[in-house]
Amino acid sequence: MKKASLIMMIGPLFLLGLYVFPLWTIMLGAPQYPDPLGIYIHIDGIRDVNEFDIQNIDGLNHYIGMKKLPKPEEMWEFSTFPIVIGAMIGLGVLIGLLGFLKKVDYKWFIGWFVLMSVLGILGMYDFNAWMVDYGTNLDPNAIMKLANPDGTPMSYKPPLLGSTKMLNFDVQSLPATGAWMMFIGMMLTLFASFIGWKHRNAISANNTIIYNQL
Amino acid sequence: MNKSKYYLGAIAALALLFVGCQQGANNSGKGALSSSAAEKVYVAPGEQDEYYAFLSGGYSGNLTVYGLPSGRMFKEIPVFSQFPTSGYGYSEETKPMLNTSFGFIPWDDAHHPDISQTNGELDGRWIFINGNNTPRIARISLSTFETEEIIEIPNSAGNHSSSFITENTEYVVAGTRFSVPVPQRDMPINEYKSNFKGALSFLSVDPEHGHMDLKFQLLMPGFNYDLSHPGRGKSHGWFFFTTYNTEEANSLMEVNSSQNDKDFIAAINWKMIEEYVNNGGGTKMPTNYAHNIYDEATHTGTTTMKKEVLTVDPLDVPGAVFFLPTPKSPHGCDVDPSGQYIIGNGKLSADLTVHSFDKMIAAINDKKFDGEAYGIPILKFEDVLAGTVKSGGLGPLHTEFDGKGNAYTTFFISSEVVKWELETWEVIDRKPTYYSVGHLMIPGGNSRKPFGKYVVAMNKITKDRYLPTGPEMEHSAQIYDISGEKMELIYDFPTHGEPHYAAGCPAELLAANSKKIYRLDENKHPYAVPNPADARVERKGNEVHIYMSTIRSHFTPDNIEGVKVGDKVYFHITNHEQDFDVPHGFSMIGQNTSELLIMPGQTKTSIWEPKKVGVWPFYCTDFCSALHQEMQGYVRVSPASSNIELSWSLGDD
Predict the structure, then answer these.
(1) Which of A194, B45, B321, B412 could be a cystine partner for B395, CB 3.0 to 4.6 Å?
(2) Domain segments of chain A: what residues?
(3) How many domains does chain B have?
């Protein structure tokens, strides 16, 4: 259980990477943009891949009536996410510590993993909802109003994951370093749960011995 | 019968010989060779060249940027000439760049570009070039590829033995081709002899900003100082100038200044003179010359008139100046990468004279002089001679080096490039040029470290090389592959203006530092509009200042009223793009000036003096975006007596 608890304490710390590295990256390449434009989505806001990319993406998007990319203060998520992540890191490390002190068992580890997964899925759902709004809620006075072959207005929602062709742009949306670190951290907690589960009998056996000795 | 047999035999032999010759020509001529030449110069679409080449524009006054080996032209950098394409010399910000003590001069004759160096190797910070006609030296940034500074050279005329730099860019040197009265005065022309002076100017270069300062002028005897090059390595601290017209003729020069069997190469120990000057030596002379500096932060050039120059009489610094006799009106004066050999290209002879720096120092130390000219010691020809290249060509002009012990000399009259070996002075190879070559250029050829892969020969005569375009044609250049023992002609390309000298360097020295945009948040132009909300129109008497911004695809503001006939309207336009290669243009109907081409983050100003009442459109001249055709606006011009208030707007605001 000692080993599992140590891993459980280390795993959530990987989420600290989210405060430094981007969670997601969206790149936009086009014939006249051989060096693609790009944005990094951090838990606390959207940043340029190369300086002025946001300004240039906004500039191009105004032709098709898209809103500007949100500033941190324009979306509640960018102030809430850092708090939620911080709380989850604290909680995870605490659970690991308590496990180390044998106050809690591996089930708490699984509990943390499940909670983090649920939050992650909610986060993805929220992110996707924003992208739908960003890509479809267009200015009615847009310079270029483009329609699909079936007559419906063309939408510009970037893919959540993978690539798509959007007018002259190839848009590619992929998890970035922060997400990979979160993934590794969560896998570690799952691994900690597994070790904890595997040794559960040994622990109870040991405990039995100890109790007997007492 | 016997005789006729012999004849038949002879004819058969001749026929064989012809066939043999033709086969030889086929093998070494077109077929296999030209396909390998094509591969050597072919830079596939989307790929980039190996070298930058900066070719002077001669009478275009500008500098052109090419790629090697493709021969593709990338840019024409305006230097000494007005350039309506960008508005250089027309915009309020750049007009001061062309100011001189003679007033605004819209043109010059640009000859000899030279890239800045550190420790004798190209460092890619700046490129310098001389204006020949109204003596000036320009400095061009190699991050913006724009002219940043132009300094006028007083007491000089025909600024030809310029603009060569010392191996740590301590000085850029400007020598006079035509000697003149110093200071200028009203006097009979035929009293030239012993009265005229030849000024050799040493301009110090600030290592931080590159700003030039005319540190001192050496007032030499009234010869023609034709070309020059710095010493390097062991000869660092010396500068060498070829001279002609040591006869000091003042008329029918083509005959009268070609009489002496030998003219001179002047060897100048500039370090010694620098020390003399630093210790308070020299004479301050009143004069008047313009110093124009363009500031990248304010996007604006300013002119300062300088009123004094420090002159040095060579006789006041004994041991600093010597003459090396050199046959037949030498033109090019070239120094090999080691700094040991000084080559005088005697343009009226077949031979090249190579002087030895070590021998020169020994002769000076031994005081082995062969008389003097105006008090300046003349060394004995035999004492300084390292060797003579018996070339077999005619009219040698210029020599470059490949860094592998070989030299390449152009021959104007016999129209060829000759490869020869240093120290053995043996000719290795010769190839024709098309036609009558002037300068040649090997990237880094004027440094301790040449990149000896290609040589570019720049010709004076084009004739039939390209499809005919009437009597006037562009000049022609040839590229030779010099990586092997023999030179190989691999490409022909037309050049703009009349290139004289050129400078080249590996692409990686510059490409990564080339600016993509100017930062708007670093724009310090006094009339800049940092934010579209700051766009406005102000009146000061009859001056109307329009603070305008541009972004794809509109001007802010685009409707302006309250301008009157007789007003002087200043359009101060700031391009708000911060995206690579998105300039906006500006032009106004009936404007007596050129358009503006404004780079991202830049501010430029154009003047319009409306003469007619009406509503007059302006528009963006650069196809900036899909909505470029919509990028336009109107100015309402009312009669001078009108009392319509100034107003401006964009859209519904």
Answers:
(1) B412
(2) 2-213
(3) 2
